[in-house]
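Notes from the 1:1 (GR / supervisor)

We went over the backlog. Supervisor wanted to see one worked example end to end before approving the batch request, so GR pasted a single chain during the call. The sequence is below; no edits were made to it. Supervisor asked that the structure be written out right there so they could see what the output format looks like.
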Amino acid sequence: MTKPAGSSAAVVERRIVVAPGVELHVEVRAGNRAAAPFVLVHGLASNARLWDGVAEHLHAAGHTVVVIDQRGHGRSDAPDFGYDLDTAVADLLTVINTLELDRPVLAGQSWGGNVVLELGWRRPEAVRGIACVDGGVIELSQAFPSWEDCLAALTPPALDHLTLAELETRIRKSVPHFTDRAVAAYLHCFRARPDGTIEARLSLRRHLSILRSLWEHRPSTRWATLKTPTMLLLADSGDGTRTSRKRSAEAVALAAGGAIRSVWFSPGHHDLHLESPERVAELFLQALREGFFA
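Structure output shown during the call:
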């Protein structure tokens, strides 16, 4: 595989209007027009920076690569409305159409995996394939039968008493094998306030609105009628309960009999695209070479 140049000169920043008064921050690495384009979609409370390594490898192989900050995340606008799966799908489709991308491959991580799965299910003619990176199979209602249970378990902890330096120390302790660049990508999920403490770019209210929409999503009902070739990249973090749930969801997807393949990373961190960007990119490229994404 061609090594990425690592140059930011190839990146063109765009603002894409997805609704009246709402623009998303998008970064475009233009490649060979004959090569399949890619669109990379981050997860809940994340940002585009986590895809940088994968984007560079795909671009080095000749592909146009588009990376987005979803609504309310990163450097995109944060209106008071639109924090649900339907809007995320509509925003993504608007980006594809505005940039006139010819049936791109969509890759989404975590919640982003559910977003690209839903778009691929609704609009199979708009894409040539989707890749769900430790996502797409997320069906929170199976783990949390009631929304109240989900809310109690998954409401993010308050971190606004920390400084960026203190947060960085915590991150490095939790993922000591991650690179400096990966840690910097995590830090971009926050901004510093005048007093030196941090705040999440995605507000708690908007975070919980997306979480509620994710809890309501039922990806298991999509596999039987999904027409879009789909790759699942799944992480075995060592948490037996989570891995068991993923394996059950994987089995349901594969049993549907569609064009679905899965690859496990064991061990693997939930942010596989940040932990193993070259391997993730190579799996995407391999699927293209083999004609899986056609």
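Supervisor's comment: Residues 1-7 have pLDDT under 50 and may be disordered.
Batch request approved.
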